Amino acid sequence: MPIKTPFVAVDGIIQLFDENDNFQGIVLIERKNPPLGLAVPGGFVDVGETVEDALKREMKEETGLDVEILGLLGVYSDPDRDPRFHTVSITFVCRAYGIPVASSDAKEVKVFKIEDIPFDRLVFDHSKILKDYINR
Amino acid sequence: MPIKTPFVAVDGIIQLFDENDNFQGIVLIERKNPPLGLAVPGGFVDVGETVEDALKREMKEETGLDVEILGLLGVYSDPDRDPRFHTVSITFVCRAYGIPVASSDAKEVKVFKIEDIPFDRLVFDHSKILKDYINR
Questions:
Q1: Which residue from B46, B50, B78 is facing A78, i.e. has the nearest CB?
Q2: Chains A, B: CB contacts under 8 A, how many?
Q3: How far is the C-alpha of B35 from the C-alpha of B22, rounded, in Å?
């Protein structure tokens, strides 16, 4: 294929609720691989997969959660947003119930109340993404 | 790079206005290359380019118009939406003034009132995209 293209990724802002529908916080992962730091869970879209299916698969792989997609937050495509190569992130807002469990690229999974999110520990442009989510 | 990824494209629903701000219609192109038919103008995102810059470049190349982006309509990623290969379309709604002129992949540029759009002549999933635009 002669066309070069950026990589397509999906990221999910997971609103976590308990069984009584009480909001617990936003799910973030402590990354196992570089760049190290906190991140919104996400990953690459496979050829042959919709972005919605990729999101559900990645959220399950990284946090153990089954998510319901609530909507699109935005598309983040600054060529410098990922230090490895040019990645276009399609970012969704979603909802999940239960207890997250780290696996795949996540060393640890953490749940933060909005006011406790440590913005200075977020990698990529995820602090911008989370601020866009909060201010939307 | 070991990761395989779908191709990233942008498409633009261009709302065309005259100099007195009267809505003229939606700009569609008659494609020069297969698949032949009518399409929302669009094209592939280059590595190193934001999706917004890609959209403005492609709209200019295909229609001669300078567009102002109004917002994101959606992300279309069905693996079968493009008969050539898996393409993820990031679709924007935008506004332009002036007279469109065909070039690049467009054999001809046409302006349609919403009620006159020939949905059965649209290629890819562009009839779904335009219906989503109308019903949004």
A1: B50
A2: 75
A3: 33
B33 in reach of chain A (CB within 8 A): no
pLDDT tens digits in sequence order for chain B, 136 residues long: 457 999 999 999 999 999 999 999 999 999 998 999 999 999 999 999 999 999 999 999 999 999 999 999 999 999 999 999 999 999 999 999 999 998 877 899 999 999 999 999 999 999 999 999 999 9
A58 noted as active-site residue: no
DSSP 8-state code for residue B114: G
Pairwise CA distance, residues A28 & A100, whole Å: 10
Write down the pTM of the prediction. Answer: 0.95
Chain B: residue whose CA lies nearest to A78: B50
DSSP string, A104-129: TTEEEEEEE-GGG--GGGB-TTHHHH
Q: For residues A77 and B49, what is the distance between their CA atoms, to the nearest angstrom?
A: 8
Q: A34 in contact with B at a CB cutoff of 8 Å?
A: no
Residue-level length of chain A = 136
Q: Which residue of B has its CA nearest to A77?
A: B50
Residue A18, both tokens: 């308990």
